[in-house]
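user: can you give me the structure for this one chain? tokens are fine.
assistant: on it. calling the predictor now.
[tool input]
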Amino acid sequence: MTLAQLLARAQARLSAAQSDEPEANSQWLLAYVLGVTRTWVLANSSFEISAKDQQQFEKLLARKEQGEPLSHIVGVQPFCGLDIIVSPDVLTPRPETEDLVQQVAAHFEHKGRYTFLDMCTGSGCIAVALAVKFPNARVLAVDISQAALQIAQQNIRKHKVEQRVQLLQSNLWEEVMGTFDLIIANPPYIPTQNLANLTREVQHEPRLALDGGADGFEITRPLCQAADSFLNPGGLLALELDDGQAWPLARGLSEIGWQAQVKKDIFNVERFVFATRN
């Protein structure tokens, strides 16, 4: 069977299963099985696939049909030019969060000696990306989940930033000490009643990293209420939120003495809040 024939059949199966992005996911899965790039797969449609590789592909395709995220199947997700290790214990890094990091990075000098805090770090993707972008910065990566921190540790080692990224298990601010030039967070923000409406792929991810409580602000609210105590003068608070949450949070921050801006993500959604103290 050729690659083109196998991909056509796989795409039809994923479409029937109402999987997200059936064409792209079929291509990525096949590239993973063959140990090549997706570009190579697209450029070699007439290549004959071996029975062994076809059997392996079929096994992985069956997992994707059941709604398992591609990142869980292949074990990594691209993020800011890095391959980030993921598992069912952490959120899969998404383009919106990558955009948050890019926008935040524009606020700082490349060689500055900064201290950054990544709250609700999960896989550690933000902390690691910042450490790579800012070679003189130190980053504290905080999460309540020990399982998530174990994945973050793997990413820290993988990208050789062990000397500059420290992990801390803490329920938000409980164990945090010191002050920072940046507090960045992609906290759980999905209102509890909306969790059942998420795609099958997202529902494979840890509820702890998704559930933002009744109004979606159960984690964000206490995070913001104490953030000023941990920011250096002129420091930046940068948050990723759900669609529709950014303006209410920005107004709330303004009421307690912050200067807050709402920024759009790459999909033109008002998703980010950047805030500094007056």
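assistant: here you go. The chain has two domains: 3-67, 76-277. The chain is about 40% helix and 20% strand.
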